[in-house]
Specification:
The protein has helices at residues 45-58, 71-84, 121-127, 131-139, and strands at 4-8, 13-15, 26-32, 62-67, 90-102, 105-108, 129-130, 145-147. It is an alpha/beta fold. Strands 1, 2, 3, 4, 5, 6, 7 and 8 form an eight-stranded mixed β-sheet that branches.
């Protein structure tokens, strides 16, 4: 099977070569998707995302939460998150939901990803979000630390 539950929170941090300003913020985008339309629904991804968001808030993070996001909602959430980040901020991205890998690239699935057979991988890839693209966009904001 191509699809499987995915909770992406890597313990990797990328420091950029400049000092963080005194007003740097800790900002997180936390996404949980359970209610998929064309692939197996999940039962605990939203709960997992909420638990992570709650913990991050206790640590002082500003947490942006998104639940059961279709492609448009997920895209807008990522754009808004990146627009909110400034130089020196510390950014954390967390996704709980379905994901898959093609050719060494991981993809995150929105809730409206179409059903596809094994010879229709492009349908899913085109409707999903490549993790390297998400990471590159966050890093382009010049956040001092990005955790994904």
């Amino acid at each position: 099977r191509i699809l499987r539950p995915l909770a992406a929170l890597a313990l990797a941090a990328f420091a950029l070569p400049f000092a963080a300003p005194a007003l740097a913020r800790d900002i997180a985008l936390v996404i949980g998707n359970d209610r998929y339309q064309s692939v197996t629904q999940l039962q605990k991804a939203v709960n997992d995302a909420n638990a992570v968001g709650d913990s991050l808030e206790k640590l002082g993070f500003i947490v942006r939460r998104v639940e059961n996001a279709d492609q448009r909602t997920l895209s807008r959430a990522l754009v808004a998150f990146n627009a909110d980040l400034g130089p020196g901020d510390r950014a954390l991205f967390y996704f709980a939901g379905h994901g898959f890998e093609i050719g060494g690239v991981n993809y995150l699935l929105p809730t409206d990803v179409p059903a596809a057979t094994s010879n229709q991988v492009d349908l899913i890839r085109d409707a999903s979000f490549a993790v390297p693209r998400i990471v590159d966009a966050i890093q382009s904001t010049r956040a001092s630390v990005a955790i994904r």
